[in-house]
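INFO batch 0412 | record 1 of 1 | parsing
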Amino acid sequence: QVQLVESGGGLVQAGDSLRLSCAASGGTFSSYAMGWFRQAPGKEREFVAAIDRSGGKTRHAELLKGRVTISRDNAKNTVYLQMNSLKTEDTAVYYCAARSSAMVITATLGYDYWGQGTRVTVSS
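INFO prediction complete | emitting tokens
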């Protein structure tokens, strides 16, 4: 079983950049496909980005393409989410998730393990 801990959130201004990190422990990190999701107040959790086990294949939400990039470092058991040109509507709690499969998917139900989330607040 893998444990996930997100970090890097905070209060930023519109137009700023942030890099979120998710550190994994308790499992073989390279055997998990990873994803980032977010949940804004009063809204459902939504897909942000996902990456396969090796990092060779990624998928990003259409609405966020060009502004977010997912990457991973298997030697450090960490997955990252680089977010640029942040907007107020990016304000949400961002969650890291892992699935015991090679496939990169967007559905929350497909992920087996979740972190506690890191809050990102973007002010205007």
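INFO post-check: The longest strand covers residues 18-25.
INFO record closed
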